[in-house]
Amino acid sequence: MRLIFATVLALLAPSLALAAAPSASAGGIEVDLALVLAVDISYSMDPDEQALQRQGYVEALTAPEVIQAIRNGPLGRIAVAYMEWAGTGQGDIVADWTLIDDAASAKAFADRLAKAPLNRSYRTSISWGMIHATEMLDGGPYRGQRRVIDISGDGPNNEGALIEPTRASVLAKGIGINGLPIMLKRPWTFSFDLPHLDDYYHRCVIGGPGAFMVVIHDKADFLKATREKLIQEVADRAPPKPAVIPAQDRPPISCTIGEEMWQGRFDRYNERRP
Which residue(s) pair with 38 in the sheet? Predict the structure, then answer.
């Protein structure tokens, strides 16, 4: 029993600390939106997919309709940061906080993204991505009238703190979470592919008032989807219809399915050992 309790505390500790952490940006420069683009770089994303994902954000940030949406805000400016995540503690801030209020500042930020090398790493800890993004929002130099974490990824949480208590801690700080679940038609089945990743993101990842997601089903969707989602986030305008309606012919997806899949892999490995 003590071991189980200690394990639970270890899983919850990052999110509990997150809930208690004060906001360091309370006195920062005010913007309409402080947005962290939190991008999956796990090995399940091949280099071509990563390049398309990066290019999608580069083109979206400089799209005229995105710039217009920024200028139409009450203050006419937003702050954006771009970070990458994989397993617990794995990832980096590719482009730190930048004020965007016109086409020139958007292009400067996008150019930094375009020039940065692509990276890949092991495991998938959406919870760590949430925690790291929240720390960036709390410690950054900008005070957003809205604060949003935009999470893109192609698999469920399978390492680190559990996703549900972590999300609850983030939402309790007034931070919204939107999603870009990547559900590509692969020529092979990756061991941690989740057929209904959109259900998982809907139930376990996104949250907060007006939270939404845009699903990518094909590589050709990257550029259009990232642009549309960024416009909706900047304009604080969720899609008119739910991004996903879970099917009625299957039970609700478990928010620990990623951890269960990972455990199942090792159980099968141990069963094959002599």
Answer: 83, 151
Q: Which residues of 158-195 are buried (b: 16+ CB within 10 A; e: fewer)?
A: bbbbbbbbbbebbbeeebbbbbbbbbbeeeeeeebbbe
Token output for 50: 């990563």
- What pLDDT was estimated at residue 264? 63
Q: What is the pLDDT of residues 2-27, one digit of tens each?
A: 333 334 444 555 555 565 444 444 56
- What are 57-86's pLDDT values in tens digits? 999 999 999 999 999 999 999 999 999 999
From CA 21, how far away is CA 150, in angstroms rounded? Answer: 21
Do residues 200 and 257 lie in contact, with contact meaning Cβ atoms separated by under 8 Å? Answer: yes
HSE-CB at 260 with a 13 A cutoff on CA atoms is: 6
CB 131 within 8 A of CB 38: no
Task: Identify the pLDDT of residue 250.
Answer: 63
- Whether 50 contacts 120, CB under 8 Å: yes
As a whole number of angstroms, the distance between CA 86 and CA 159 comes to 9
Q: Provide the sign of the torsion angle of the four alpha carbons 124, 49, 46, 96, taken in this order.
A: negative
Residue 102 token pair: 């016109």
- The predicted model scores a pTM of 0.85
